[in-house]
Amino acid sequence: MSASGRERPQFARPLTSVEICAGAGGQAVGLHNAGFEHLDLVEWDPHAVATLRANVASWPGWGERRASELNPMDVKEFLKSEVNAAPGIKKGDLDLLAGGVPCPPFSLAGKRLGKDDERDLFPDALRIIDELRPRAVMIENVRGILEPPEVFIDYRRDILGMLRDLGYVVPEIKESWSAVEQDRVMRKVWRRMDASNFGVPQLRPRAILVVIHESVLNESGAQFVWPSKLKGKRATVVGELAASMEERCRMYWNKNKHGERAKPGERTGEQVYLDWLRKATEAAELGPGVAPTLVGGSRKHGGADLGPTRAKRAWAQLGVDGMGVANEPKKCDPERDLFRPAGPMLTVQQAAIIQGFPEDWKFQGRKTAQYRQVGNAFPPPVAEAVGRAIAAVLRPEHRDELLRDYELDTASAGSRAPQTEQMVFPVSGVPAVDSPPASHSRSDLVRAGV
Hints:
With about 450 residues, this protein is an alpha/beta fold. The chain has helices at about 25-35, 45-55, 65-70, 120-130, 150-165, 180-185, 215-220, 235-250, 270-285, 310-315, 335, 350-355, 365-375, 380-395, 400-405, 440-445, and strands at about 15-20, 35-40, 95-100, 135-140, 190-195, 205-210, 225-230, 405-410.
């Protein structure tokens, strides 16, 4: 069952996809739930690849043997390798090329170097698109590539220009326009989506690029329409974590922080749970009750936690200690994991629930490696929403069935400005955004090898 509560769509002619920078499978899960069948999953991190191997065997076209053959691969080598699907795909036959290109080049933490960052894989994605010429493209990144618009507006315009040259339907955008006007028009194909609008109890704004090849639109006549939110009540932290939090605390229901039977006046696991429940419920009653954006970090940095100082303060209002990640219940250290002044820490599995992963998704590696996979993931329900909207263009006869659980942005495409992200507490002294770097010209991409 997918995040929208619907069964996975089945098509007479399967929709095919190739995914680059697949990570631990967040986008892949969402696209699978939207009805796509993955011909290949490309990821270089060995822990994330192990997670994919442990989970995708039941997907169409995979099986235990093929899943076991998944190995780390650099996106730059995808078209050259003999162990991937690329050589067997004829140009124009692939339905969807999807991927979450690395975020550091466009994030504040990564110094926003853009095309000057060696981790920028947009040129490699464009090479693959040129070679395979998929019917649709979906690329996910951090919102920093969009906001504020003047920082990367030239780079984004050049990318869209190259996609237009490859036959994808992209609006006309003139360099003489202001950055704000260019950004407004770009929202027809490249916009921010907030996970909290799609059944995920977390803010997590992401930048999503979707383009459809002109041959598809000429054939079907269908237009891509952005989903704006999942119908129904918004998911909250208290609603999504109540069951797992109670299960963790029940192991110490009448015990103290040392795991011993509590004496009169000593705090028990039951009190830990009730204190958390009260705070998380109050947060849902006073505001949206959703979590701040999880941060996965990188392999170069130390142990995992739930984000910067502001995020930790937000977690504290939700009754959670964000200073680290708890051990799984079987290895629980009650004093460290549960009986903390600010509240219990989250386990990796609970963080995965906050991201919208299915509860049976098995992450591989040690705790910190698992958490980084979760924290860096694209929430599956958001990927499913966009995937269903793409599928509605590729299989227009299923449009109503695919999109009936979503509210759609049927207004003038791209005219609606993104809403400001709201934290669950007031903050002040937010650092100013870095000054915009020098303009990125189209020739920069050509020199990068596109």
